[in-house]
Design brief:
Blueprint lengths: L2 H20 L8 H7 L2 H4 L1 H14 L8 H28 L7 H22 L5 H27 L6 H7 L10 H13 L4 E2 L2 E2 L8 H6 L16 H6 L19 H12 L16 H6 L16 H7 L4 E5 L7 E5 L20 E5 L21 E3 L7 H7 L7 E3 L7 H7 L7 E3 L7 H10 L4 E3 L15 E4 L3 E2 L3 E6 L6 E4 L12 E2 L4 E3 L3 E8 L9 E7 L6 E4 L9 E4 L18 E3 L4 E6 L8 E8 L10 E8 L2 E8 L11 E8 L7 E7 L17 E8 L1
Parallel strand pairs: 4-5, 5-6, 6-7, 7-8, 8-9, 11-17
Antiparallel strand pairs: 1-2, 3-4, 10-12, 12-15, 13-14, 13-16, 16-17, 18-21, 20-27, 21-26, 22-25, 22-27, 23-24, 23-26
Helix pairs in contact: 1-5, 2-5, 4-5, 4-7, 5-6, 6-7, 9-12, 15-16
């Protein structure tokens, strides 16, 4: 290949590059040309090596620069120039795909600089030796900068120094740790940021700053507080790996099961961007998942209270618990107006050094002497909402200088009360919903307490609120003999109704919950809460499954997806209930054809029912079976027992286990054959309308 040809080819790449640079907003790229653009990361390493090699050869002393070496240097320059031109052109094409921002501009122009400087060094051969060396050193520096900005585009900011920076970052204590900053954001940075940041915003979604997270992408909100079905984050991470919209893309490093669970529980808990970890309830799944990662705080210098003392203070109307595990700081909360005894507050003197928070919401405190609280020198948070306090009591509270947070919602404040609050010099947060103070009084408080965040709330006297769903607690889903189920609701005087047959509860026809429920067979419970002055709650549901007997034999007649094959047929009879996560390895997943299982039975056992445990998760394309067929082999003949179409989903709901149960009472089969057909085409209301659905099964229950 002649030098003249290579030299002319350099100007071809220069011309094309100028066209794409000057008219980048007017050019519509065909798909085949986009493929060339995506070769940019593969091509660019070759010219870097050649150009750096040319730089090294350029430093050979002139008296040793013989003709063969000069010839080699010319060809190294020319091949380096041509591949640099191709890399620039491919990069300009690639930049049309979801790339933008300052980092992209820096990488683009530094890439151009590499091409132009190296071209100049080759063609302007009459430079002095010293200028030539300065030019080659400049080229080396620009190559390094272009590589740095390119790595930032691909791998995220500070990619080069990340290992060093990570070592210098100190781990916060549990008391200081924030849910998003210290738990969620590191996951997003390691698994999501390479495609959703400045310079590259796939789907118009940026995750490198909070505004981008709040805004979401072009297909929906990134997070919708408490709603895992409509949050883009939880929709995409739960999709099957084969799906185009699964995130991260299958060629990228995938989220671990723990990371998926953390992100899901974060959205369920509200998706806060500034909440501290210790502000979560200690029994909330997200707190339990990550609290052990952080060192306990050492910010409290007082001694631990004796555990026996704490135990003696706990009863059915009062709870004493640490701020977080292994913390000496205690939180005290009272419940139940009818059970409240004013004298019981005196019991707290024994932990007056350790108590940092006291919750007395809705307790009958009118006329009670609260002056003793001044002896609780570490009391920082006091909640007295709807306690009907008098002015004299507010005056006593105004002397507790350790307070940083005070809640007086629903407490009517007089002029004297407002004046007393102005003396709380260390206060940071003050909550005064429905306190009866006018705008002038609000302005007075805000001007006299400029350092305090004061929340005056809003007037909601005419608003009727819906109740939260009741909580359903059961130790396990799969049981052998019997199972205890308890129902509860955080608001007192709420009535909870339920049936056990999977039908919707009703306050007129349903069963009123009064004591724990014991079940001895498989089924589904739905529960709703009702109370005067409230809108009834949505229903909460849970399935319970009796493990039953083992068959004589079993086999899969069709193979599950290779990615969701569990332990083969054994998965269906191992008496291990799969987690609510289709990637946990405890499920068999089918999409291209039906799940077909054949079971050999012991006729002498007289089976009465067969249950099929399924997973439903519409966001991940996992729907109820389109059709269920069950054939039984009895007296030498196969016959149809069941052929039905289960009720299909009409909206995206939370991930959940479901149970389909069918009677065998009138039959004595020797064999059973089950077929579960996945939905062929997702309905029009679904974001993936038209795509094939999935069926996930984990247990077959014979009872």
């Amino acid at each position: 290949m002649s030098k003249a040809f290579l030299e002319n080819l350099v100007f071809v790449w220069l011309g094309f590059g100028l066209i794409f640079t000057l008219a980048e907003n007017q050019i519509v790229l065909p798909e085949w040309l986009q493929v060339m653009g995506r070769l940019h990361p593969m091509i660019l390493h070759f010219p870097i090596v050649l150009l750096l090699m040319a730089v090294v050869l350029s430093f050979i002393p002139k008296n040793e620069n013989t003709s063969p070496i000069k010839e080699l240097l010319d060809y190294v320059w020319l091949f380096g120039l041509n591949f640099a031109g191709i890399a620039v052109l491919a990069g300009l094409i690639l930049s049309q795909e979801d790339y933008s921002g300052d980092t992209l501009d820096l990488h683009k122009w530094s890439g151009w600089a590499v091409f132009l400087i190296s071209t100049g060094l080759y063609f302007i051969s009459n430079l002095s030796r010293s200028l030539y060396k300065i030019g080659t050193l400049t080229l080396t520096l620009v190559i390094l900068l272009a590589g740095h900005w390119g790595a930032s585009l691909t791998h995220g900011e500070d990619f080069l120094l990340a290992p060093i920076l990570k070592e210098t970052q100190s781990q916060p204590s549990l008391a200081d740790a924030e849910v998003f900053r210290d738990v969620v954001q590191p996951i997003l940075q390691s698994k999501c940021l390479s495609c959703h940041k400045e310079g590259k915003t796939k789907g118009d979604l940026r995750l490198d700053h909070l505004d981008g997270i709040r805004k979401g992408g072009k297909t929906g909100p990134f997070i919708l507080a408490g709603n895992t079905e409509k949050s883009l984050l939880t929709q995409r991470i739960h999709l099957p790996l084969e799906e185009k919209e699964h995130m991260p893309p299958k060629e990228k490093t995938q989220l671990t099961d723990e990371e998926i669970e953390i992100l899901t529980e974060w959205v369920k808990s509200g998706g806060s961007l500034d909440q501290k970890l210790v502000e979560l309830p200690s029994d909330e799944p997200l707190f339990e998942l990550v609290s052990q990662r952080f060192e306990p705080s050492t910010s409290y210098d007082f001694e631990f209270a004796d555990q026996s003392v704490i135990s003696s203070l706990n009863n059915h109307y009062r709870r004493v618990e640490p701020l977080y595990p292994e913390s000496p700081a205690l939180i005290v909360s009272y419940f139940g107006i009818s059970a409240f005894e004013p004298s019981s507050l005196e019991d707290l003197r024994i932990i007056q050094d350790q108590m940092i928070q006291l919750n007395l919401d809705k307790m009958p405190l009118k006329g009670l002497d609260l002056g003793f609280l001044q002896n609780f020198k570490n009391l920082s948070t006091l909640r007295l909402n709807f306690t009907d306090l008098e002015e004299s009591q507010i005056l006593q509270i105004g002397k507790i200088q350790s307070l940083t947070s005070l809640s007086l919602a629903g407490v009517k404040l007089s002029e004297g009360s407002i004046k007393a609050l102005q003396g709380l010099e260390n206060l940071q947060n003050l909550y005064l919903w429905q306190s009866g103070i006018n705008q002038d009084q609000q302005n007075l408080l805000q001007s006299s307490l400029p350092q305090v965040n004061i929340d005056f709330g809003f007037d909601d006297t005419a608003v009727i609120y819906p109740l939260n769903p009741p909580q359903i607690k059961q130790d396990k889903t799969l049981f052998e003999d019997s199972l205890e189920i308890t129902l509860s609701h955080p608001i007192k005087n709420v009535e909870v109704y339920y049936p056990l047959d999977g039908t919707m509860p009703d306050s007129l026809a349903g069963s009123l919950y009064q004591k724990p429920i014991w079940v001895k067979s498989s089924g589904k419970i739905l529960a709703k809460a009702y109370s005067k002055g409230w809108i009834s709650s949505p229903a909460n549901s849970a399935v319970f499954m009796k493990s039953g007997s083992s068959p004589l034999g079993y086999r899969l007649l069709t193979s599950p997806s290779p990615n969701y094959k569990g332990s083969g047929a054994t998965t269906l009879f191992d008496r291990v209930k799969g987690k609510n996560n289709h990637t946990s390895g405890e499920w068999l997943g089918y999409t291209s054809g039906p799940a077909s299982i054949e079971i050999d039975l012991d006729e002498s056992k007289g089976f009465e029912s067969i249950g099929i445990s399924l997973l439903y998760h519409e966001s991940a394309y996992i729907f109820p079976p389109e059709r269920v067929e069950i054939d039984i082999f009895e007296n030498g003949v196969w016959k149809k027992l069941v052929s039905e179409k289960p009720i299909q989903s009409t909206q995206i709901l939370e991930i959940r286990s479901e149970l389909l149960t069918y009677s065998l009472k009138e039959n004595s089969p020797q064999k059973i054959r089950i077929k579960l057909y996945p939905i062929k085409s997702l309905p029009g209301w679904h974001p993936g309308a038209g795509a094939p659905g999935w069926v996930f099964v984990d247990e077959i229950l014979l009872n």
